[in-house]
Amino acid sequence: MDVVNFHSVTKQYGAQSALRGVSFDVNQGEFLVIVGPSGCGKSTVLRIIAGLEHPTGGIVQFGGRDATALSPGDRNVGMVFQNYALYPHLTVFENLAFGLSAARTPKSMVRERVREVATLLELESMLAKKPGQLSGGQKQRVALGRALVRKPVIFLMDEPLSNLDAVLREKMRMDLRRLHEQTGVATVYVTHDQVEAMTMADRILVMQQGEIHQIGTPDEVYHEPETLFVARFFGSPPMNAINVRVRHREGGWAIVSPRHGERATITHPGAHATEWERLAGESGYWLGFRPEFVHTGRGEGVQFSVKVTDVETLGPRSHVHAEWGADSLVYVLEHGQPAPERGASVWLTAPFSCLHWFDEQNRRLRPQNRIGHVHPVQEAAGMTNR
Ligand code: ADP
Known about the structure:
Elements: E1 4-13, E2 16-26, E3 31-35, H1 42-50, E4 57-62, E5 65-66, E6 77-80, H2 92-102, H3 107-120, H4 136-148, E7 154-158, H5 166-183, E8 186-191, H6 194-200, E9 203-208, E10 211-216, H7 218-223, H8 228-233, E11 240-249, E12 252-256, E13 263-267, H9 273-279, E14 285-289, E15 295-296, E16 301-313, E17 317-324, E18 327-334, E19 345-350, E20 356-358, H10 376-380
Parallel strand pairs: 3-8, 3-9, 6-7, 7-8
Antiparallel strand pairs: 1-2, 1-4, 4-5, 9-10, 11-12, 11-14, 12-13, 13-16, 14-20, 15-19, 16-17, 16-19, 17-18
Helix pairs in contact: 2-3, 2-4
This protein binds adenosine-5'-diphosphate (ADP).
């Protein structure tokens, strides 16, 4: 049985549509990360799960039962906010005990449960302190403990690490994952940070403008993005994306930009003749390839003649920015590879295996209609479409 189900949930704030028909499930024990740019509706989803907001349309279920109209107190959710929301005048013990005491739990049980949670979160030596005497990371752990103490059916976290510095954030990412593995409580975690999503999630739910673009494992959203938006949201620098058409040229095919007329040649297209023929229709596509998977020089794949505009040196690697006609492209050079001069003309090859194709509505083409990116796991298992 799923912990929570959303069925076509919508939310209007006046004329503003915050959610436009959102459906997904939270599985038992999973760590689900909701990610997307600011304003896409992530917090609204979380607040609807918590019961702090009610949907305009659709159904929310808890444990298979309709919970759309249940009040927050009847849902048994544990919520952790960005600002911790601790009571400053209470000790750590009292903060942890607050929810249980308010629910008239017997004192001995409160003590036992608080001790259990304090041990789990390594807060035993801080129980007599006030929040003002704690570091950011410690406050964060108290906030987690306070949510955990009531044995919630689901944990909800809204950007809980955004107030911490980079070093502490990295440590807390690992601590939160470990805590999740110890407690096994299903968790929905909201962030706008792709790195948090990639490193913490069992599954990632990607949102934009009140809609879900994809739900999948970190591996799936990176290697098999369903939309151009997902493709460009994950990865740094983002995936290159150019608007192209496929045209017959010299007994084979070429990639042409309808915008600026530049042409890219295809070497050894024969291995994919059926797919190239299918792609050579009237309509255009978005062609994507990640900066880390293209190489300089002429090789098997799609060859672009580009002009270098900038080189960013980042220690272990460099990002080279270049122009293909009026399109900007980026590629990555690993440490030790010589960087080109600004203004240099360079050949760039995107191997067939790294190509991603999207239609003009930005949706991924079905496998039979593309010369496709090969998922490494599928490739290892011999399940390729090549
Ligand atoms: P996110 O968490 O992804 O930043 P939110 O869920 O907070 O996004 O907001 C989604 C959209 O709904 C935004 O456009 C926001 O301005 C709007 N919104 C959120 N809460 C309210 C509210 N209480 N009143 C009016 N508009 C709201």
